[in-house]
Amino acid sequence: MFYGEQDYSIDDKGRMLIPKEYRAELGESIMLMRGVDGQLYIYPKQVFDEKRQRMAQFDDTESFRLTRLAFNTAVGCEVDKQGRILIPLRLRAYAGLDGQVVIAGNEDHLEVWNSDEYENAFVRLKNQFRQKPEEFTKIREAGLHL
To answer: Is residue 73 one of the residues assigned to a domain?
Structure first.
């Protein structure tokens, strides 16, 4: 399980160090893909394959479109001996990753955010929570407060 947030950086070649505490759970072969809010997702290959198999069972048009959005951008990636990954230029551009980034855990995957956008996304979510608290009933029932 992945949780927490950490500040990291991407070098001029597009390499990013994976935090040491996440490496064992991620394994050496991972999958990168676009996230829905401008971030990147990093999945252990096994978790990604399980999600792909579950989605392959859907046979309606909407699910097909969602599957396309999810998997068209997926890229396999290897973690090098120093614990770094090379994020392809297209994915870096999509997420605005240049220099400082935030790596955040989200249960079964990691998210990589542009540092400024990460803070903006958190503020937007917090404001949405305050404006429409009824939409967050399940979160509150779980004991989480924003």
So the answer is: yes
Give the range of the structural domain holding residue 72, as residue numbers without chain letter: 5-115
What does the alpha-carbon distance between residue 54 and residue 47 come to, in Å, rounded to a whole number?
A: 11
Pairing of β 99-106 and β 84-86: unpaired
Compute the average pLDDT of residues 114-129.
89
Q: What is the pLDDT of residue 91?
A: 96
Residue 44 falls inside a structural domain: yes
| CB atoms near residue 119 (< 10 Å) | 12
Adjacent-strand bridge partners of 114:
101
CATH number of the domain where residue 48 is located: 3.40.1550.20
Compute the distance between CA of residue 126 and CA of residue 122 in angstroms, rounded to an integer.
6
Domain count, the chain: 1
For residue 105, what are its two tokens? 């855990």
Q: What is the pLDDT of residues 59-92, one digit of tens each?
A: 777 777 777 777 888 999 999 999 999 999 999 9
